[in-house]
Write a structure and sequence with these properties.
The chain has 70 residues and is α+β, with helices and mostly antiparallel strands. The chain has 2 helices and 3 strands. The two termini are 19 Å apart.
Length: 70
């Protein structure tokens, strides 16, 4: 399934000042486990994370919910 959406959000930072920022994103989202596995291997992420110490945990792949933003 391929989802294309356009989102507009207003972000307010709360300190003593309120700051308004406009964010306008278009994105494509799709679920593809094979693509996530291929990206994990072909981009070298598997090799990079294999060498990292992650408090006795190990990364095993990417989330198959792929989101691409404009």
């Amino acid at each position: 399934m391929l989802v294309v959406s356009r989102k507009t959000a207003y972000i307010f930072a709360v300190n003593t000042h309120f700051i308004q920022a406009h964010r306008d994103n278009e994105r494509i989202a799709f679920q593809d486990e094979a693509f996530a596995k291929h990206l994990w291997q072909m981009c070298g992420l598997a090799d990079v994370f294999r060498q990292m110490d992650l408090d006795n945990q190990s990364a095993i792949g990417l989330n198959p919910n792929i989101r691409l933003y404009k």
